[in-house]
Amino acid sequence: MFYRPEDGHGLPHNPFNALVTPRPIGWISSRSADGRDNLAPYSFFNAVAYVPPQVMFSSTGSKPDRQHGKDSLSNIEATGSFCVNIVSYALRDAMNATSGPYAAGVDEFELAGLEKAPCETIPCHRVAAAPAALECRLTQIVRLEGAANYLVLGEVTGVHIDDAVLRDGMVDVLRFNPLTRLGYQDYSHISEVFSMVRPNG
Questions:
Q1: PANTHER family of this UniProt entry (predicted)?
Q2: Which residues contact 85 (CB under 8 A, 6 or more apart)?
Q3: Which end of the chain, N or C, is surrounded by fewer C-beta atoms within 10 Å?
Q4: Tell me: the pLDDT tens digits for 14-69?
């Protein structure tokens, strides 16, 4: 089949998210200007540069109790920082619990029964049980086409790695099985790895 998004796809559900998969999940923790913690997952997330290390995520919805965007976006605009918590398969239910459209001021850490840990370089909490966390300083917020689409870019200023996921000095993803987002209501996790050497090195 072929369709132009502006004309609609004619299918029961939008296939776009199911085609661009799997996507890593950025479990974004942030803090409001008045000190309230927030935690929410975003599946439009990825690393975008090595030196300095940088990441991005996109907020693609709005809430009636926010002027624009979601709580994460408002908090990051106000404080200039956020933390990306890596989601392991073991944390899937907790991650899902934090994905609801809760009122501003609801602490999703508490709602999901998650222990908080302090960040080192930014004024924010991270998920203590996450296999890794990336502390980030906001560099840009870019307004995208659409009613409530925003691209958030940050420079990584601190990296936490659980020693249990390291093997011979390298991160072994099979020790925590990263959760990935597919389309519709579907998820998967990394349970198999193979290597390929690039040509000329």
A1: BLR2425 PROTEIN, FLAVIN REDUCTASE LIKE DOMAIN-CONTAINING PROTEIN
A2: 27, 28, 29, 39, 126, 127, 130, 132, 133
A3: C
A4: 999 899 999 999 999 999 999 999 999 999 999 999 999 999 999 988 767 766 66
